[in-house]
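#help-structures
NK: newbie question, is this the right format to request a structure? protein is His/Glu/Gln/Arg/opine family amino ABC transporter, permease, 3-TM region
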Amino acid sequence: MTDARAQLVMDSFLPMVQAGFMVSLPLAMISFVCGILIAIGVALVRISPSDNILHHILLKLTKYYVGIIRGTPLLVQLSIVFYGLPALGIYIDPIPAAIIGFSLNTGAYASETIRSAILSVPKGQWEAGFSIGMTYMQTFRRIIAPQAFRVAVPPLSNDFIGLFKNTSLASVVTVTELFRVAQQYANLSYDFLPVYIEAGVVYWCFCMVLFLIQARIEKRFSRHIAK
């Protein structure tokens, strides 16, 4: 490695790490929380008994939503939110646009995870709640949700790690996150390989920490299940 390349790698390292902590990680966390809220709502609509026309309409809408989001690339979704909506007179700043895109994407995928986790709880648990006078939502909140949450933790943890890596796509909507910082340094020097490799290493380090956190969370929940 030449001295110029070594200096480039050293100069870009700290800004990339700072962008990871200050932008990429918060962006992933906020989008994940919003996505989970969307996913819970979608999952509940899809598993609830269809007993009226409003629920039937919501069921159709959620099916289309999940199908469209899962059937189109995340990059296209972000581009539509940031570059497409202005054609309709809707202008959204880069970070909110990224959060909207990531949240909608996460909500669609996580809804299937949450729906499967809820359906994994034996039907007898629902009947037990109804038998003691609980309403549908009381039964879900007090009996079903805690059990389903334990089942959903491992796949949702993987979803979060995947979302953190996908925040690199926010550079497309001009968010100055980790990868966009790498692009800026690479563009200044026209020496792309070392900077992009370094960006990959920084992402890998972040993900290794997240993997360790995931392992501890899963271990903790496995103990509760064993008890």
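mod (FA): yep, format's fine, and the tokens are attached above. Helices lie at 3-47, 53-70, 74-84, 94-119, 123-131, 136-166, 178-189, 192-226.
NK: thank you!
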